[in-house]
């Protein structure tokens, strides 16, 4: 009986871990005064309606741009020369020129129809306050995208941690 319960708990934990979806937003870095282009590919999604959002730490989410079918427009507070939004095929682009520190945020795009909207992706825009123009062009080209990777070590440690919790729970539950 005890072996059956232990096997069931371990099997449940393994199934839970295997079903975890590890997702993250890519990081785009830019220096003050540089230009960043954020893209959103809506291929495979309904795209009659489209939105760009800005979420800065400690502030309310702002709508940067919204569109209906092929017409996408910036909201009033972003209708300045530094922001531009374009659509080419199924790819919407948000271009931010002369980047300032206040542009640092997570930018999300959302597409869909009237009753079915989905967030397609998000990008973390990090603004460096020092001059990285020379080193970035030398090492990486004009734009740099850095993505974190959940390697096997992190996943293995997570599985090990869950198994330890299960063993502790079993020991506590069946103590004599």
UniProtKB/TrEMBL annotation:
Q: Where in the cell is it found?
A: Cell membrane
Keywords for this protein: Cell membrane, Disulfide bond, Glycoprotein, Immunity, Membrane, Signal, Transmembrane, Transmembrane helix
The answer to whether the entry has keyword NAD is no
Q: Which residues cross the membrane?
A: 150-174
Tell me the ranges covered by the Ig-like domain, including all copies.
33-111
Q: Where is the signal peptide?
A: 1-19
PANTHER family, A to Z: IMMUNE-TYPE RECEPTOR 5 PRECURSOR-RELATED, T-CELL RECEPTOR ALPHA CHAIN V REGION-RELATED
User: Under which name does UniProt file this protein?
Assistant: Ig-like domain-containing protein
Question: Which organism is this protein's natural source?
Answer: Ameca splendens
């Amino acid at each position: 009986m005890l072996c059956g319960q232990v096997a069931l708990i371990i099997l449940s934990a393994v199934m839970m871990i295997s079903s975890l979806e590890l997702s993250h937003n890519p990081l785009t870095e830019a220096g003050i005064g540089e230009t960043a282009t954020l893209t959103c590919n809506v291929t495979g999604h309904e795209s009659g309606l489209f939105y760009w959002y800005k979420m800065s730490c400690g502030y309310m989410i702002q709508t940067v741009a919204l569109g209906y079918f092929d017409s996408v427009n910036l909201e009033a507070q972003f209708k300045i020369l530094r922001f531009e939004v374009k659509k080419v095929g199924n790819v919407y682009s948000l271009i931010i020129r002369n980047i300032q520190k206040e542009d640092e945020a997570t930018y999300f795009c959302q597409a869909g129809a009237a009753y079915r909207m989905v967030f397609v992706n998000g990008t973390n825009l990090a603004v460096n306050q020092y001059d990285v123009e020379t080193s970035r062009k030398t090492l990486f080209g004009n734009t740099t995208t850095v993505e974190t990777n959940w390697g096997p070590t992190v996943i293995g440690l997570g599985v090990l941690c869950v198994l330890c919790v299960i063993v502790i729970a079993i020991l506590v539950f069946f103590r004599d």
